[in-house]
Amino acid sequence: QVQLVESGGGLVQAGGSLRLSCAASGSSFSIRSMGWYRRAPGKQRELVATMSSIDNTNYADSVKGRFTISRDGAANTVYLQMNSLKPEDTAVYYCAADHSYRITYMAAVPYWGNGTLVTVSS
Questions:
Q1: pLDDT tens, 81-114?
Q2: Residue 43 phi/psi, 5° resolution?
């Protein structure tokens, strides 16, 4: 089993920044790709960013240029640096991990964290 624990969420004003962290534990040696998804109030869960085993990245159009995903391989931790935050970024952010080289479909992701709430005030 793989456990994912997110941290770093909180309340921030529009235009501000936050950095989310997600630490993998358990059978984390088998994890090759990781990512971030979010669920805004009243909406479905959606892609934020993913990172493959060779550090290729994929971002949702809504966060390109503002968010950056990175990973500390030694610590098996993935980060999401969020800059220029907007009220529409308000959501619960979920860490995701996969045994595959890259995350393809959200529905196929086997491991999820419990989420961390990010609230952006206007």
A1: 999 999 999 999 999 999 999 998 999 999 999 9
A2: -125, 165
**Range list of β-strands (E), 1-122:** 2-7, 10-13, 18-26, 33-39, 46-51, 57-59, 67-72, 77-82, 91-98, 111-112, 116-121
Q: 116 — phi, psi (to 5°)?
A: -135, 135
SS (H, E, C) 12-44: EECCCCEEEEEEEEECHHHCCEEEEEEECCCCC
Residue 94 in tokens? 């979920």
- Any residues with CB less than 8 A from the CB of 24 and at least 6 apart, and which? 2, 3, 4, 31, 34, 76, 77, 78, 97, 111
Q: How far apart are CA 122 and CA 114, in angstroms?
A: 26
Residue bearing tokens 């995701």:
96
